[in-house]
Design a protein that fits this description.
Blueprint (H helix, E strand, L loop, with lengths): L12 E7 L4 E6 L2 H4 L2 H14 L7 E6 L2
Antiparallel strand pairs: 1-2, 1-3
């Protein structure tokens, strides 16, 4: 009997977006392979800002949370 199960890979990856005025927002990326590319995550964040999903402002850093 096997009591250990393999964990399934995450379906989404969560990031915290820090702004220059000390605000924070959270960003979820559905594609784990794109979440590994810092440049792609930055582009996703800017695109979501343009769409109004993320707040406007100057992004100072994006850090992976989960």
């Amino acid at each position: 009997m096997n009591t250990f199960r393999k964990s399934s890979p995450a379906k989404t990856v969560m990031f915290v977006v820090n702004y220059d005025d000390a605000r924070r927002a959270y960003l979820w990326v559905d594609n784990p392979t794109r979440a590994g590319d810092d440049r792609a995550v930055g582009l996703i964040a800017r695109t979501q800002q343009e769409q109004g999903i993320l707040p406007e402002g100057t992004i100072t850093s994006i850090k992976r949370v989960r």
